[in-house]
Design a protein that fits this description.
alpha+beta; 5-stranded mixed barrel; about 20% helix; globular
Length: about 140
């Protein structure tokens, strides 16, 4: 009886530990490698949260209207390993983001890199091809 209870509790523990993984997705599930994006915009907010960071930028569209985009990056831990900090993107910074648009065509994408006016470039460490920097 005691062995059965131990097995049931261990199984329940494993299921609960795996629960957060159910919502995680692959690049191909949400983003389209055939829809690359490269846009210049102004940072409006940085979401430094797990499992993905989010950069919100205002981009001027071809018609002159401002459109807010959400760019997914890697986890805060992945960004720190790539030299990215919370202070790297202050609100109001003008940046160029390269990445891939969401499959649903929304104003959402996954970022590969962020470039600054002074020439600096930071990789976003997410699921996008090339987001972890040049191959070594």
């Amino acid at each position: 009886m005691r062995t059965k209870l131990t097995i049931v509790l261990a199984s329940a523990g494993l299921l609960l530990a795996a629960w957060p993984l159910r919502a995680h997705h692959s690049f191909a599930a949400e983003f389209d490698v055939h829809r690359p994006i490269k846009m210049r915009g102004t940072v409006t907010r940085l979401g430094w949260i797990n499992p993905h960071s989010w950069i919100y930028i205002d981009v001027k569209g071809p018609d002159g209207k401002i459109v807010n985009w959400m760019i997914e990056g890697g986890s805060p831990n992945a960004l720190l390993r790539l030299g990215f900090t919370k202070d790297a993107l202050p609100v109001g910074s003008e940046i160029v983001v390269e990445g891939f648009q969401a499959k649903d065509g929304s104003n959402r994408g996954v970022g590969q890199s962020v470039s600054f006016a002074d020439g600096r470039k930071l990789f976003l460490g997410g699921s996008a091809p090339g987001a972890n920097g040049p191959e070594k």
